[in-house]
Design a protein that fits this description.
The complex is a heterodimer. By secondary structure, chain A is an alpha+beta fold. Chain A contains 16 helices and 11 strands. Helix content of chain A is 56%, strand content 16%. Chain A starts with a helix and ends in a 7-residue tail after the last strand. Chain B has a 5-stranded parallel β-sheet with strand order 2-1-3-4-5, with helices on both faces. The chains are: A alpha+beta, B alpha/beta. Chains A and B meet through helix 11, helix 12 and helix 13 of A and helix 1 and helix 5 of B.
Chain lengths: 499, 140
């Protein structure tokens, strides 16, 4: 009670006495304080209105602190007017004290807030950033990047969009983006569907045809992203379109090539099958008549020899020799064609041992011959044992065959390295050959000697060539008539990556 | 050992080969007990009629045959409960790898490539005849 009475006590002279009741001075104070009070009271309303409108503003509680502080300040000025005529100085003191209590924390909070507030980019900085990105996007030529409003109407346009779609900015802004879709898609409402997907899933992506202004089509890669405000409302869509017609063309091209390759492979397979059945029937059907010729000639010789003179017997002998030869040719040809189909089973081959083995076999077949055989230790290689054995058999039997006139025959094996492969050579001092026919050596049925001089089918070296080639190696020969021949071939080194 | 009515069933469509084969068998006195059929169908008919009685001791089978192919004849024989006990010797001109593999998979008892050379041919056929008719023991 005392405190309240004291608060309203007016034991002092009113403030007007200090002004000696000078009317001009009193009006000056009253008018000034009134205007200040009015203004101070009006400012918080404006602040509250502003804060309510801009809920995104950071630190909006600070605006409320300011509001309370300013109302308190206004009230102190109101008290100034009151105390001119009423001496309630205790009351005006309390109002001042309240103002002080409100202003101190406001001041402290403001000091603390400043560093944080300084981090907020200034509108100028924001404008610059926005401008920079806008310029970048507007300048992008490879991508059409533009914004759609929530209905799908074009809001912005960039250089890429103009280049890809052919519209200028002022022609397209405000138009609905379904204009970019081909008629058949427009009919089915594809544009609306894509916005629906973007709305529901946040993002829509597809590849499809789009139309340029001139009506031509291009294959586009399209991404639509929904943009939402802080309340989750969609306010726009960002749309990025790329013209990937070229890429699409390339992919189709590759697909076409693949298809034609597959077709080719099938044709080859069929051709291979044909060849296989061809050689199969050769194998079956070509040998029987030969057997009949040989068999019946023989029976003629055995059972009707009394009716044959020696010339007749000789002629039948010729028939039989040629039958034999024909049989050998067929067999050689078949083994040559079989080689093309046969799978190569690669393993590490002890070439030194294999070649020695084959040499000993050939030696045993020609026991009457004097042969000097020279061979260093040969490095191992990678290959198919059975096939390489055929190579060595052919080369060494040739060496034996074509040195028949030499005493002693010299067969010299050597080794070297070439292009990362093992190089082997087999040299003999036999009849050799004329280098101008060197290329014919490795062709099927190409022979440099008559069967009467040197027997053979003309398939052996073709077989060698085919085997070595299928191993990824190469084979060639050097020679001179009557001065011997050298056959070279390369094979993958042991441990090398297989083909 | 008494010889059966039919010791060898020769399945061969080529008349010349039949004659050469018979000549080779004759040299070992085996020619009188050979029955010759000219295609696969005939071979199967004969075998089915003789499955229980007087079945041959061995079948010499050519592969390239009219009507039913030799491989199919072999397959039928080896599927048949009783016939599969008769040894089958393939005698053919071909030494195609796949024929050899295929016939062995089907259970062929021997595979002989008929040589072109008459002497070798005679030896091969006569030896096969001697071996399968006289030396070999089979269930029948």
């Amino acid at each position: 009670m005392d405190v309240f009475r004291q608060l309203l006590s007016s034991d002092f002279m009113p403030h007007g006495s200090c002004y000696l009741w000078n009317t001009g001075l009193i009006y000056l104070h009253v008018l000034s304080d009134s205007l200040i009070t009015l203004s101070y009271y009006a400012i918080p309303f404006t602040l509250v209105y502003f804060v309510r409108k801009r809920r995104d503003l950071p630190f909006h509680w600070m605006f409320l602190c300011f509001g309370v502080f300013i109302i308190a300040c206004g009230t102190t000025h109101l008290m100034e007017i009151w105390t001119i005529w009423h001496s309630n100085y205790w009351l005006s003191g309390v109002v001042k004290a309240i103002t002080a209590i409100v202003s101190v924390p406001t001041a402290i909070l403001l000091v603390q807030l400043v560093p944080k507030a300084l981090l907020i980019p200034s509108p100028e900085a924001l404008r610059k950033t926005e401008q920079r990105f806008r310029l970048i996007i507007e300048g992008v030529r490879d991508y059409a990047i533009f914004m759609l409003d929530s209905e799908g109407n074009v809001m912005t346009w960039n250089a890429g969009a103009e280049r890809i779609k052919g519209y200028k900015t002022d022609e397209i802004v405000g138009k609905h983006f379904s204009i970019f879709y081909p008629p058949e898609d427009r009919e089915t409402g594809k544009a609306a569907r894509s916005l629906k997907t973007a709305t529901e899933e946040g993002r829509y992506e597809e590849e499809g045809f789009r139309m340029r202004k001139d009506g031509t089509r291009f294959w586009a890669d399209v991404v639509i992203t929904a943009l939402r405000d802080e309340k989750g409302q969609i306010y726009a869509f960002a749309k990025i379109t790329r013209d990937i017609t070229e890429r699409k063309k390339n992919i189709e091209e590759i697909k076409k090539l693949n298809e034609s390759l597959e077709k080719r492979a099938l044709e080859l397979e069929a051709a291979n099958k044909d060849l296989e059945s061809f050689s199969y029937s050769v194998s079956h059907d070509l040998r029987s008549p030969l057997r009949a010729i040989d068999g019946f000639s023989r029976m003629l010789l055995q059972k009707h020899s009394s009716q044959l003179d020696s010339e007749g017997e000789r002629l039948l002998g010729v028939v039989r020799t040629n039958t034999q030869r024909m049989g050998e040719l067929i067999d050689a040809l078949l083994s040559f064609s079989r080689l093309g189909r046969q799978e190569i089973r690669v393993s590490e081959i002890n070439v030194d041992q294999l070649l020695e083995e084959v040499y000993q076999e050939q030696r045993a077949l020609n026991p009457e011959r004097t042969v000097e055989f020279r061979k260093p230790v040969l490095p191992p290689a990678q290959g198919d044992r059975n096939l390489l054995r055929q190579v060595f058999e052919n080369l060494l039997s040739n060496a034996f065959k074509f040195t028949a006139g030499q005493n002693p025959a010299v067969i010299e094996v050597n080794t070297d390295s070439r292009n990362g492969m093992n190089l082997y050579s087999i040299r003999d001092n036999g009849v050799g050959f004329d280098m101008q026919y060197g290329k014919k050596l490795f062709k099927v049925f190409q022979r440099l000697h008559s069967p009467q001089e040197y027997e053979g089918t003309g398939v052996g070296l073709a077989l060698v060539h085919r085997i070595i080639t299928r191993h990824g190696g190469s084979v060639w020969a050097e020679g001179k008539t009557n001065e011997g021949a050298v056959f070279y071939f390369t094979l993958p080194k042991a441990g090398a990556k297989s083909q | 050992m008494t010889l059966q009515e039919v010791e060898i069933l020769l399945v061969e469509d080529n008349q010349n080969d039949v004659e050469l084969t018979m000549d080779a068998l004759r040299s070992k006195n085996l020619a009188n007990h050979v029955h010759v059929v000219k295609d696969g169908a005939e071979a199967l008919d004969f075998l089915k009629n003789h499955a229980t009685e007087n079945c041959p001791r061995v079948i010499f089978l050519d592969l390239n045959l009219p009507k039913v192919d030799g491989i199919d004849v072999l397959r039928e024989i080896k599927k048949h409960d009783r016939l599969k006990l008769i040894p089958v010797v393939v005698m053919t001109s071909s030494h195609e790898e796949r024929d050899i593999t295929e016939t062995y998979k089907l259970g062929v008892n021997s595979y002989i490539v008929k040589p072109i050379d008459f002497e070798s041919f005679t030896v091969a056929v006569a030896d096969a005849g001697l071996y399968w008719v006289l030396l070999n023991r089979s269930p029948y």
